[in-house]
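Weekly modeling sync, notes
Attendees: S.R. (lead), two postdocs, one rotation student

Agenda item 3: backlog of single-chain predictions. S.R. asked that every request posted to the team notebook include the full sequence so nobody has to chase files. The rotation student volunteered to paste the first one in as an example of the format we agreed on. Action items at the bottom.

Example entry:
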Amino acid sequence: AISSVSTDELKMSSSSSLSNALAGRISGLTATQSIGGQPGKDDATLYLRGIGTTNSSAPLIMIDGVPRSNIRTIDPNEVESISVLKDASATAVFGVRGANGAILITTKRGKKGKPELSISAEQSYTSFTYEPERLSSVEYLNIRNEALRNDGSSALFSQDLIDKYKNPTAGLDPNDTDYEYKAMLRNYMYPNHDYYRELIKKHSPQTRVNANLSGGIDKLSYFVNASYIHQGGNLKTEKKSFLGYDPSSKMDRWSFRGNLDYKITNSLKAYLNIGTYIEKVNMPNPDSYPNSDQNWMMRDIMYQAVTILPITPGPVTLPGFGVEENGLIYPTYLDRSPFEIINRSGYLNETRSNLNSTFGVDFDLSNYITKGLSIKGMVSYDNISRTTLKGHKRERLYT
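Predicted structure, as returned to the notebook:
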């Protein structure tokens, strides 16, 4: 009914979310990942031996003895240990609040001795666990014709057209001074797009930098931790210099923690814990979707990227044909253009900050009343803020 996990085990995971890092490391704990690894949104729903109450399914989370919920943003380098109480062991301590179990997080503290400085830097890359198979234009044309014939209908695409997709530049003279331009036009008219790979990156980078200092003297001990993490997204976007804004999917988080312990007398001790972070999350603007649903937008981008056909020209127009250059091509058989949603719909930037502070005293009464008796007092203050900045854009579509 009681389990624990150490910092070394947590640091084996490259996840930017501590709740995701707990997955598979504690018996009885189910961590269901949500939002598909989206930067700044990546988190897990935690269950301890199922659901114990009807009004809530989440376990009680205690950080240094204070109920808090920001487990996702805690830096593993500042965690000393995580203990998990399940079933009766949790309700015995926390009553009905622990009906779904309890996760007790203890952060690191300084010890008497010389200052110890630790600096680390990590670079990792993430990718989707599954990606669709590549379908070329010629494969699509032949398979589509075969499907129509199987239904008793005539083939839609002629062999002459299929041959043009096989070799768009057939018949052009390589010695022609305009060969490159003509070849570009042919490839545009008879494309063989891999739209999924043109819109979705195979790998996304993640950078983590951490520095912490700990130590202490006779009466004062300290632990200070600072970290930075950058989580890049998988969307391929146009350059900011061209668009005038940045629609890329990414997250930057700066975290800080300071734990101080002061020995006032042999019997009276005081401590101060301060933990804070600032997180900036950027993505395309979701205003084109009902209720500006960000999760819907990201799911739909993936769906549209898989659905768009390799024979579809685009994703933007060419100059010199009576339309604007770099205008949006709209695939009429889709609900919307994924290229438009990713690049030309604007941007959404969220800045979140959180401050957790706790001051407490511990008065040992062993020398005054009876051995083992003590009085503890604690006061905590939390501050949460969130700022949203977004720009919405619409452009003309061409078919």
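Discussion: group reviewed the output briefly. The first strand starts at residue 2 and ends at 6.
Action items: rotation student to repeat for the remaining queue; S.R. to check formatting next week.
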